[in-house]
Amino acid sequence: MVESLKLNFSAPRRGLPPKHFADLTDNERIDKLAELGLPKFRLKQLAKHYYVHHTDVVEDMTDIPADKRQAVQEALFPTLMEPVKTTSTDDGETTKSLWRLHDGTLLESVLMRYPGRATLCISSQAGCGMACPFCATGQGGLDRNLSTAEIVEQFRHAAAAMDAEGGRVSNVVFMGMGEPLANYKRVVSAVRQITGQDGAGFGLSQRSVTVSTVGLAPAIRKLADEDLACTLAVSLHTPDDELRDSLVPVNNRWPVEEVLEAARYYADKSARRVSIEYALIRDKNDQDSRADLLGKKLHAALGSKVHVNVIPLNPTPGSEWDAAPKARQDEFVRRVIAQGVPCTVRDTKGDEIAAACGQLAAEERESA
């Protein structure tokens, strides 16, 4: 069933990015090195520079033969992302970066610093094909899937930035542009590299990675069978099919009950609590009755293996969608908790720098 996603949610084909170190298996990397006249032990050296020191500048890798560095750079570490714009807020604690890819495609990532930790919000696609009407990325449509390396490079750039600050990226959330499970194979490969240990990746704990989805039920089940310890986040946004069909159009294919059954399967397989994302929208999905229904359905489907994150909507300019008032938000949370389901309001950052997914890219396209 997951294979059918390729037919229904595949990205338009554009110029593929050049193959990068992060796109290749170890055997493919060794073959590349052999083509350059280098022995396979050089792979371990390159992996250490890339995954441990967070660099792709081969000229600075003094343990690589000087006469081979340029060839290695071109063959294994082509430039995939160029910075276009960086904006900061929260006294510099939140940084949103806009990147231009090799084919002109625009990509966003957000680095959020908190006391003692830093969370990177990462994109899995350029644009998004899920067409949720309150999301800036969904309004812009899907450009293409990102390659594995284009996903991984977002992490490396952020890790290098945190190195310069004397810190580290401690958490990764796949909540940027795109539907991660519609780019399934590359996202899983990126997760394995972000979390790989002993030279096989950046060494982040799998428990520190969250993969978000709007509810591609077969892909949720497939992800459960990967035996990862990542957190699954389901962007539910309403507990009833009638409204969700319009808020999250993929619900017409996989309704709420089926999504929650898949989420339960993931929770059981991973032994991880599922996070339910709920963007609270004024007069759309913020009613008492929906809070009550949400709590009841989640308690029945997931028991103690669930937590609700209420997200104050970050509205896009000119949109009919707006955040629910604070009093409504508080009552919504209270009513969900009353049904026996933990529920908190997510700390929002970056409102004044167009931090909602897709806003910065949309502004750049409009100004071009």
TrEMBL record:
[4Fe-4S] cluster binds at C128, C132, C135. The keyword rRNA-binding does not apply. It holds the Pfam family Radical_SAM. It comes from the Bacteria. The active site is at E108 (proton acceptor), C357 (s-methylcysteine intermediate). One of its GO terms (cellular component) is cytoplasm. Residues 114-351 form the Radical SAM core domain. It is found in: Cytoplasm. S-adenosyl-L-methionine binds at G178, E179, S212, S235, L236, H237, N314. Its cofactor is [4Fe-4S] cluster. Its main location: cytoplasm. InterPro entries: Aldolase_TIM, Elp3/MiaA/NifB-like_rSAM, Methyltransferase_A, RNA_MTrfase_RlmN, rRNA_lsu_MTrfase_RlmN/Cfr, rSAM, rSAM_sf. GO terms for molecular function: 4 iron, 4 sulfur cluster binding; metal ion binding; rRNA (adenine(2503)-C2-)-methyltransferase activity; rRNA binding; tRNA (adenine(37)-C2)-methyltransferase activity; tRNA binding. Its EC number is 2.1.1.192. Signal peptide: none annotated. Keywords: 4Fe-4S, Cytoplasm, Disulfide bond, Iron, Iron-sulfur, Metal-binding, Methyltransferase, rRNA processing, S-adenosyl-L-methionine, Transferase, tRNA processing. PANTHER family: 23S RRNA METHYLTRANSFERASE (PTHR30544), RADICAL SAM CORE DOMAIN-CONTAINING PROTEIN (PTHR30544:SF5). Reaction proceeds by a ping-pong mechanism involving intermediate methylation of a conserved cysteine residue. This is Probable dual-specificity RNA methyltransferase RlmN. It comes from Corynebacterium flavescens.
